[in-house]
Specification:
Helix content is 54%, strand content 11%. The chain has four helices and three strands, in the order ββααβαα. It is globular. The two termini are 33 Å apart.
Length: 137
């Protein structure tokens, strides 16, 4: 048998789109099937399964920590960039991991923002899958 060695395609592009956040600013959001985000979900599910097997593991601090990790994963893996994000003092917030932590894990709008990004990531992925389906048949 002859093996055909092919080079891995490093140019795989996942769907993303700029979307306006209702209370201001724009986010470049990836599709929900972004591989790094899916891996983060696997890890969260493993932690949940551990708790199912041993309810003594459940604590408010563990839940809070997991919620923060989830929020951070949404910001890091489902958002590629942002524009027009400002603090109350009017200063612009630059896109970087420290600021992702700030607005996704520590802002008063974090729940609204996470819900928005997940909803948009799902919509973007569905749209991309429909387009691929129409092209591929």
């Amino acid at each position: 048998m002859a093996f055909d060695i092919v080079e891995k395609n490093k140019e795989i592009i996942f769907p993303s789109e700029w979307v306006d956040f209702p209370i201001g600013g724009r986010f470049k959001v990836n599709g929900i099937l972004q591989p790094e985000f899916q891996r983060a979900l696997e890890i969260f599910n493993q932690e949940t399964n551990e708790e199912k097997d041993n309810i003594d593991l459940i604590s408010s601090s563990r839940i809070e920590k997991r919620n923060e990790k989830f929020a951070y994963a949404v910001g890091v893996f489902l958002v590629n960039d942002w524009d027009g994000i400002e603090l109350k003092d009017g200063s612009k917030l630059e896109y970087n991991r420290k600021n992702i932590d700030s607005i996704f894990c520590r802002s008063a709008q974090k729940t609204e923002l996470i819900d928005f990004v997940i909803k948009e990531a799902t919509r973007i992925q569905s749209k991309s899958l429909e387009e691929a389906k129409s092209i591929l048949g």
